[in-house]
Amino acid sequence: MMPAAYSTRPLTLLFLSCLIAPASIRGDDLPDWENPAVVQINREPVRATFTPYATAADATAGGESSRVVSLNGSWRFHWSPTPDQRPVEFYRPDFDASGWGEIVVPGNWQTQGHGVPIYTNITYPFRKAPPRVTLDPPRSYTQHELRNPVGSYRRAFTLPDAWQGQRVFVNFGGVKSAFYLWVNGRRIGYSQDSMSPAEFEITDAVQPGENLLAVEVYRWSDGSYLEDQDMWRLSGIFRDVDLIARPTARVEDFHLTAQPSDDHQNATVQVEIDLAFAEGASPEGLEASVEITDPSGAAIGTAQAVAGTDPAAERFRTATLEVGNPQLWSAETPHLYRAVITLSGPDGVLECIPWRFGIRSYAHDDGRFLVNGRSVKLKGVNRHEHHPRTGRYVDRATMVRDLELMKQANINMVRTSHYPNDPVWYELCDQYGMYVMDEANQESHAFGTGSRTLGDNPDWELAHVDRGVSMAERDKNHACVAIWSLGNEGGSGRNLAAMRRAMEEIDATRPYFYHADRAVTEWMDIDYPTIAQVEAYFAKPQRKGVLVREFSHMMGNSGGNLPEHVDALYRHDQYAGAAIWDWVDQGLIKPASGVMRYIEDPATLSLLDGETWAYGGDFGDRPNDRDFCLNGVVGPDREPHPHYYEVQKAYQPVKMTLAPDTSKVQVTNRFDFTNLASLNWRWSLLADGEEVGGGALTPPDAGPGEVVSLEPPGFADLPEDGREYAGAVYAELAEPTEWAPEGFVVAREQFVLRESQFNVPPQPGGGELAVEHSDDEIRATGPATSATWRPSTGELVAWRVDGREMLARPLQPYFWKPANRNQAGNKYAERLGLWKSAAESSKWGGRVVPGSSGEVAVEMDTELADGVGQCQIRYTLHPSGQLEVAMTYEPLRADRAPPLPKFGVRLGLAGGVDEVAWYGRGPHENYADRRTAAFLGRHDLPFAAYHTEYIYPQDNGARTGVRWLELRSEAGLRIDGRQPLTVRAWPYTEEDLESARHPADLPNRDFVDVNIDARLHGVGGDNSWGKRTMDQYTLPADEAYELRFVLTPLDAGGE
């Protein structure tokens, strides 16, 4: 049947008139919610997001409207595990629901104690047999018992007296996955497509006094086949519900375009208004006008909307205004004008509709993405709508926090993966300045990505088109919407082509993107590319450019080699942009009871006592994909992960390099519309990590793309005093913005101007050392210290200083690093497992080496891993108790050996640690392939903050470039490098990390596990299911390595 949603859209109707109910589906045999030929019943045409007001003054002021009543809040609710068990007549006003509980709307019922949250990436949570969703699944599936849960909602409401004579509508912002609506016992309609609005007219069903709204929501429907996104599968009324009063003649919709002229000296604002009339209403005497004010509130002008000459087109009117010297909208300059549409009749104003809009243009040209005629590089991120307590519902304050953090991270584009987001998100993106790739709610990943998918099945054409049209109609007026995406991982074929054709009838001013069908996209996609794959694509001429929809998979401890990706983006003109996967860890909060329930303030992001972070399977959900939902740049609580800062640094809009053999800093402006002179600039100078100089710099006059030089005065003529010098340049906001205060650093770079000498002064005193040597051990003893070595294992097994035993576990050569979640997916343990026990399984030999100045040196060596390489470790004990360690590796038969996970040692430091201080890169966690944002300096942290608590335990906590580090407590330890070191320290062991599945599984040992390394395998990040860390951040077994450092005990005063 023809969807009523399109009955008043002539252009769309023209296209859709060829769509009929698929012959292969017998609609009479199936319920609406298992029939792709039924996507809605009696739903109003999807329209642009707007709020009607009673007067122009109210419209200009904004805020709450007397024409809108929110139904958000507490509703009566009943949950049924199957459709057969639902209360069939619950919608009747005389139905006794007094025994029902309550539920908060908007919200998901699983986050409020009903049913089971299910996390799965690709696998459908029900038996895959389209369009059916209730056939027998495997017995292990959650859905086997909970076949298709139904939520029954009831809400009483009373209409305002002032609404008498108005038409009344109810608007649902989002309901997952399908629902029926009744008012006062009268069935109104049906809708699916969880992520688009559903509006119904209920004028004829409402009455004076109290009314009853009843909604029956099905967890699964045939629409769920197109909602196979990588996310928690949650259900219910999860977006706003509003009652809306409209006059008998109303603005049904409008389409506002605001295009600048080619020279940007003028702009044309055109508003196409679509009027609707209730039965018996007449267009006679109606006037529609549009008033525009500039971003400061100054009036620009008012234009009457005029109808065409065809009397049949009386309902379609157009207003056109010219704007001189327009302030153009972009992500850097989000200037918003205001339009107020006023519809008047013979008796006065009928309604007023305000809209904030930006004047801008979007285009594509030979692979480039153009904003206002300029090529813009899209430095993006994918964002699921996710809140750890409320699930799919995200409150406005959390959206604002997301945008603030994104802007501060220099992100300029968000892909609404993989569905249209809450309308508030677009309003905020307009306001804060963020390009949006708006994505249709279309993914059927479990069918694969070729042409034998739902994307090429004619039975599903109507459902595809409906979803694309709904998105385009709703979001067409937003300045931020830069690119339309036809969905994600839904295959290719006729339905995608039909989607694009239908959407272009609505809006042809924006480019289109789809990764799996080159016939319907302006750009090609390279799925999670390596740098090599990007270079291979551009090695020969290409007809289409590249827009990478997903790259740099941020699962757990990730984010490696991101600067290399950004450099590749800027290296190729046809490379339009890329979006990181993804923004936020999709962890849910699990209370001790195991059942999610709202607290007093359900918008609270952080954990409370007794709560933990949960991922797939933690609620007993089956099937599940465990922690594959934890891919965020930030945590569920919006606390930045360490890799957040690498994103911020790699995406920064200024590139700075030190000119060779000079103190000049070459500065490249990577802004698109901003002169560098609009920022404040300063420099600083560190000597051995302590600031010894700094000051303001004259802001450089450099437009977008231009290159200039800066000469920080302190970078030249450094004193010859043996200290290491590092200089830095910072570019800061000169004025506060919506997203950051004045002084916020938007770009920075640090340069080592003179390298460290790595001098470690010997600790004096201690008397003479005596040595005892047996077959099993070597022991050195003196007045202040003693040490015991086990020559057969290469270990230092005991080390006492001033009567205190320093070691709870031996200091030993150790070449293993636990996998992070990227590496767990590329067979890291299998590929590199040779090195896990390489040191302890090898036969070592040891000897005492004569030394000078009273120290004792013990040297031990072995052939590692059946002759792959020769390893030698030398321990030098000074009479004071100071211990020097030197270890080398030389390859022997290593041509086929896997890389070393690390080259270094580990030890168990006796006792606890309260604080860590160091001179090296920091303050946040950093690795060889993720450290450009971690500046060299002196840092200190509580020990609990030195290691990183990922939701799924894995390798963590490294600090690279360490010159020295102190583990402080009542009696601590200082580590001095004779080279840059990488140091990790935990209150648990590697073995604990590898067996834990949640942070609560990690014990708090009575010692500290310390790893001291010359080199450590990078974190990687291209993806988490096979791609490996870039070669330059690994440790090839056929290369030589050396490690040298000194250990000095600290007393209670840290001396």
From TrEMBL:
SMART domains: Bgal_small_N
Gene3D superfamilies per UniProt: 2.70.98.10, Galactose-binding domain-like (2.60.120.260), Glycosidases (3.20.20.80), Immunoglobulins (2.60.40.10)
Any Gene Ontology CC annotation: beta-galactosidase complex
Superkingdom: Bacteria
Single GO MF annotation: beta-galactosidase activity
Source organism: Posidoniimonas corsicana
Keyword check for Metal-binding: no
Protein name per its UniProtKB record: Beta-galactosidase
EC number of the protein: 3.2.1.23
Secretion signal span: 1-23
Reactions the enzyme catalyzes: Hydrolysis of terminal non-reducing beta-D-galactose residues in beta-D-galactosides
Family: Belongs to the glycosyl hydrolase 2 family.
Keywords assigned: Glycosidase, Hydrolase, Signal
Location of the Beta galactosidase small chain/ domain: 779-1048
GO biological process entries: lactose catabolic process
